[in-house]
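quick one
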Amino acid sequence: MRVLVTGGAGYIGSHTLLELMAQGHEVCVLDNYSNATPQVLTRVRALSNGELGDVTGDVRDASTLDNLMQDFRPDAVIHFAGLKAVGESARKPLAYYDVNISGTLALLNAMSRAGCNKIVFSSSATVYGEPRYLPYDETHPTNPMSVYGRTKLMAEQILTDWAAADAPRGAVLLRYFNPVGAHASGDLGEDPRDIPNNLMPFIAQVAVGKRDALAVFGDDYDTPDGTGLRDYIHVVDLARAHVAALDYAQRHTGARPFNIGTGQNYSVFDMVKAFERASGRKIPTQVTSRRPGDVAAMLADASRANAEMGWQATHDLNDMAASTWAWQSKNPDGYGADS
Ligand code: NAD
Ligand code: UDP
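structure w/ uridine-5'-diphosphate:
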């Protein structure tokens, strides 16, 4: 299949490129490098020996999209391109609505003009908001608590309406839980530009000495050790979910959400301990106050993805920690060193 991957140079996108190419798909990336470097694609090419097309451009740009549709003629699109920082989304709401919503609209318009009918979308478990029950299944009410989360839910609604409007269209909405880990080679991984917002990249930077200590955001939650519980999902498992979703999209019409998680959750201290085991290094921690907007626990019921897409996570906590350490220790400055 010919697959257009928007945001393919990013963290999740780059790992997905390898899985797509390994399955024989023909792939083209559209990225504006607002949160990535073209070096990522050089590394993907080196790891895959495969042909990989790429276009530098913005997903909101209609003429770039029309040219791509005409030249590459994708059978399907995987739409990663977007802004993703929860805190920043409160400070710059219009930038988030612009990239995440206008970007999705521009893409769907170009797909409609070109008769491209299938899309896999990067959504997030953050669309659920405060849990009414756990694990979340896909019928759990949605009530996102951030601007970022609202852009994801609105994009899901737009995709659902688009898919319903014309019979052959299909949209798979992947609600990711907490993506972590890296490619086993240590050559691809998560490379935050500023101070990491997320737990795993922060721990990894403490381990290589770039940061002094991990601030643990609260140890007074109603959880076994008092710290937040999350359903961490290895990025390679997540990448494979996209390959399964493409296959599902070919066989189905309409829009359907799927949770992508493991069904198991871990605390902040569990993650610290796993990383200490993988790296052989001590991770100093300091408990601070809760981070506003954080929930105590998240957990996925991923049985729908298992039953309907035949997808299941296979990597465990040790794989997550070991691959993150392989990436961080081999690339202490991320892709910076070769960009
Ligand atoms: P990322 O920032 O590493 O990747 C996004 C990519 O999109 C980057 O390469 C960036 O340069 C590109 N991009 C951004 N705006 C663009 C634009 N206007 N035009 C073209 N390219 C653009 O993020 P990621 O972690 O790989 O996440 C990918 C997607 O998954 C995002 O939509 C994100 O919201 C979603 N998601 C991420 C997580 C997570 O924790 N990482 C969780 C749930 C959902
Ligand atoms: N967390 C933390 N210190 C950090 C970053 C995160 O204690 O520097 C905690 C956070 O409170 C949550 C968990 O780690 O309980 C996962 O946070 P992350 O930001 O990675 O994911 P999200 O909160 O978006 O699920």
